[in-house]
Amino acid sequence: MFQLGKKQTLSVVKEVNFGVYLAEQPDAGMDDRVLLPKKQVPPDCKIGDQMEVFLYKDSKDRIIATTNTPKITIGEVGRLRVSQITEIGAFLDWGLEKDILLPYKEQTGKFNEGDEILVTIYVDKSSRLAATMNVYKCLRTDSSYKKDDMVTGTVYQINEQVGAYVAVDDCFSALIPNRELFGDIRVGAAIKARVAEVKADGKLDLSVREKAYLQMEKDAHKIIEIMERHDGALPFTDKASPELIKKETGMSKNEFKRAVGKLLKSGEIVIKTDCIVMKR
């Protein structure tokens, strides 16, 4: 039985002037044979030889074999370059002559031609191979990472209520919870993060922030930098709304308050009724 999107070992059962036909059984009928085009046939090939091939569909929607290896196969996750964006979706270079389609309904974020995006391969309802950015089900949960390890990964989906879904090492399942979403985190972004928790099921919770005492140092320095750019003052205090604080500093209200408290204790700032100013 032919399996689209996977490698199979098949036998040469017939030679023709435009290639050879491959099958699982020597006496297979035409419906159970697949063509390996002539340019793919090894020079010393003969009837009965076995070879490993990858099966996909050509431009005429016919199953065809190739000895070339695609960059990813069904169930695998990897980065593919966007070669073209059209009205039906994006076409991705996956290492074969015919680019693979990423339909619009399988896209989880915006990208441009030339970008590399994280995808997996599946067989669609029309029995064609296609790509999807919904890689969640293909990610592994058997990483050896532990709490506080630093990891890198790719953001492949963002849910405003839940957080940012990340493929650590482009293969392990992870999440940056919504409370940890700070800075420029978008679909396709490569991020460096700390493992905040390893769940019972092996999935990882991540934080793009340092441990509290380390982060407080960085946040305090950042506040000073912001104030220096604004004539030594912030036009709000730690009593401002969480939304305003996050917009202006990229910090949560608690992080902002901790950093302001550190600066106040060290004598670097003065908190007034409606602003914070640097000591001169």
Compressed to H and E, one letter per element, the order equals EEEEEEEEEEEEEEEHEHHEE
Instruction: Determine the structural class based on helices, strands and strand pairing.
Output: mainly beta
Proportion of helical residues: 10-25%
The count of DSSP E runs of length 2 or more, i.e. the number of strands, is 18
**Please, what is the average pLDDT?**
88
Low-confidence stretches: none
* Estimated share of beta-strand residues: 35-45%
Give Rg in angstroms: 27 Å
DSSP summary: helix tally: 3
Specify the biggest β-sheet.
Answer: 5 strands, antiparallel
Strand order of the largest sheet: 3-2-1-4-5
Terminal CA distance: 79 Å
Large-scale geometry: elongated
Q: How would you characterize this protein structure?
A:
The protein contains three helices and 18 strands. The chain has 280 residues and is mostly beta strands. Strands 3-2-1-4-5 form a five-stranded antiparallel β-sheet, with no helix packed on it. The protein has a five-stranded antiparallel β-sheet with strand order 8-7-6-9-10, with no helix packed on it. A hairpin with a 3-residue loop joins β12 and β13. α1 crosses α3. The mean pLDDT is 88.
Can you lay out the helices and strands and say which pair or pack?
Elements: E1 7-16, E2 19-23, E3 34-37, E4 50-57, E5 63-66, E6 77-86, E7 89-93, E8 100-103, E9 116-123, E10 129-132, E11 150-159, E12 163-168, E13 172-177, E14 190-198, E15 204-207, H1 212-229, E16 233-234, H2 242-249, H3 253-265, E17 269-271, E18 276-278
Parallel strand pairs: 13-15
Antiparallel strand pairs: 1-2, 1-4, 2-3, 4-5, 6-7, 6-9, 7-8, 9-10, 11-12, 11-14, 12-13, 14-15, 16-18, 17-18
Helix pairs in contact: 1-3
